């Protein structure tokens, strides 16, 4: 089968085409790349923005983290929009908002204006964070769904890495993020560059088909059958059986459930939704995005210069990519639950180590009254290793696995809405962590990392008690 825009052209005989599944998943995962770039690029810009607008730790935290409220709103809306207008249209809406948000935040009138444009970009992030994993799960054959689903997280970490490389290169070229480069401050270039992949994302969404499960739900059965035959292959009887499974899983009532109905006894999916929310919350409460939003200013606060701090951020982003590749290689072999447990243990140990190192720091106050922690050479080295070990364990476990599980847990009839609820919870949790970190770090950096370590320990019990394995099952069997 070939694809021309969103139109499917039938060819015979139908056979499985893994290459098509990979291409479709990769296109959807571009939303993850923009998610990673848009949320992490602020790491290199935050210091210059703080100086440009003369704002303190609390206001800095809000300027960074209010983006995440936009993401929570986008995630909340994404499921209903996806069920109403389709997965592809939501991707295209996200792409347009990414473009507008990137350019608006790069050329603001003041800090309020910048924050509002960042919220617009945040809505795009929220839409992409729901629709990309849901779409990938719905077009992926069961045997490779874990690997294809992990492509979304790989795209996120690639976006993070590219943002840090761009930050480092622009800062180096300008001699600092607050200095001019071709008449525009370097931090503005950092934010504006996101418009380039956003335009590519918009164009690429014009080349992939709609989710077959959405097509079945909207009565476009013939189109859905052709896509299923192409992606999963098999005889006409096998394809017909898969179509029947999808119809049955959608249920007789095709109405989109409300939030209240998600937790009603009638649907019987309330416990699953709570598990999805729990996974989303723990993914953020271990503090991972502190590394990607604030690591530059954090390492400057413990004695590293701006250039070296940005380089450390690049190294952490590369470690993130390596860990994600490990996850892609093993997720469909050893399963989702074992990876989560391995990651929780590794994160708890590395975060605890970092907390001990920061506890030994000598705390002073700079001219602005901000806390400055000075680490010994040995403790500084150990803290750096521990921070990157934390990133590695997160990347091989809670980073990709949570998105895969959230897309697999729920039955077809409620998947888009339930994924939206869980993802909104993820963004609210992200906001809480990101908004509080500057003030918490200013108060007690060691205790702050100790809190994140405690969250990693608690996640072990949560996984053991509530998370079920979904490896190797079709979406109809897993949900």
What does this entry look like structurally?
It is a single chain. The protein is mainly alpha-helical. The protein has a single domain (2-478), classed as Growth Hormone, Chain: A. It has helices at 18-40, 42-53, 57-85, 87-106, 111-139, 145-174, 186-192, 195-204, 212-217, 221-232, 236-250, 259-262, 270-285, 288-301, 306-334, 336-359, 377-395, 398-409, 415-466, 475-478, and strands at 2-4, 7-9, 180-181, 184-185, 362-365, 371-374. The strands form 3 sheets. A two-stranded antiparallel sheet has the order 1-2. A hairpin with a 2-residue loop joins strand 3 (180-181) and strand 4. Helix 3 (57-85) runs parallel beside helix 5 (111-139), helix 5 (111-139) crosses helix 19 (415-466) and helix 16 (336-359) packs antiparallel against helix 18 (398-409). The longest helix is centred in the last third of the chain and has 52 residues, at 415-466. 57% of the residues are buried.
């Amino acid at each position: 089968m070939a694809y021309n825009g969103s139109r499917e052209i039938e060819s015979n005989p139908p056979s499985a085409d893994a290459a098509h599944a990979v291409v479709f998943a990769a296109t959807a995962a571009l939303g993850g790349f923009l998610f990673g770039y848009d949320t992490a690029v602020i790491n290199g810009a935050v210091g210059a923005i703080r100086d440009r607008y003369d704002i303190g730790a609390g206001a800095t935290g809000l300027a960074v983290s209010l983006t995440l409220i936009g993401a929570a709103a986008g995630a909340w809306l994404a499921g209903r929009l996806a069920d109403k207008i389709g997965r592809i249209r939501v991707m295209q809406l996200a792409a347009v908002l990414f473009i507008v948000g990137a350019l608006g935040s790069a050329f603001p009138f003041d800090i309020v204006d910048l924050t509002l444009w960042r919220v617009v970009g945040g809505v795009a992030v929220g839409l992409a964070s729901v629709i990309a994993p849901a779409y990938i799960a719905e077009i992926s054959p069961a045997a490779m769904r874990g690997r294809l689903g992990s492509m979304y997280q790989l795209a996120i970490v690639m976006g993070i890495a590219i943002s840090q490389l761009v930050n480092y290169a622009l800062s180096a070229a300008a001699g600092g993020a607050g200095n001019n480069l071709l008449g525009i401050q370097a931090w503005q270039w950092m934010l504006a560059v996101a418009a380039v992949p956003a335009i590519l994302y918009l164009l690429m969404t014009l080349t992939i088909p709609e989710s077959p499960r959405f097509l079945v739900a909207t009565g476009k059965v013939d189109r859905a059958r052709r896509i299923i035959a192409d992606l999963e292959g098999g005889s006409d009887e096998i394809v017909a059986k898969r179509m029947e499974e999808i119809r049955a899983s959608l249920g007789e009532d095709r109405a989109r459930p409300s939030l209240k109905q998600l937790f009603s006894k009638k649907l019987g999916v309330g416990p699953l939704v709570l598990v999805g929310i729990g996974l989303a919350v723990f993914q953020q409460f271990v503090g991972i995005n502190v590394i990607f939003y604030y690591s530059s200013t954090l390492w400057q606060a413990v004695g590293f210069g701006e250039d070296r701090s940005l380089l450390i951020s690049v190294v952490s982003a590369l470690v993130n990519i390596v860990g994600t590749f490990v996850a892609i290689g093993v997720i469909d072999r050893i399963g989702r639950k074992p990876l989560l447990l391995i990651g929780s243990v590794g994160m708890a140990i590395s975060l605890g180590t970092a907390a001990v190192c920061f506890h030994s720091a000598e705390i002073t106050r700079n001219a602005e009254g901000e806390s400055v922690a000075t680490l010994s050479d040995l403790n500084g080295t150990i803290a750096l290793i521990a921070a990157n070990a934390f990133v590695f364990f997160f990347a091989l476990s809670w980073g990709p696995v949570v998105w895969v599980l959230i897309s697999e847990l729920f039955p077809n009839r409620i998947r888009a809405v339930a994924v939206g609820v869980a993802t909104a919870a993820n963004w609210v949790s992200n906001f809480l962590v990101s908004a509080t970190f500057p003030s918490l770090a200013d108060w007690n950096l060691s205790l702050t990392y100790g809190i994140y370590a405690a969250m990693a320990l608690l996640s072990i019990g949560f996984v053991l008690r509530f998370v079920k394995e979904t490896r190797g099952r079709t979406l109809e069997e897993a949900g």
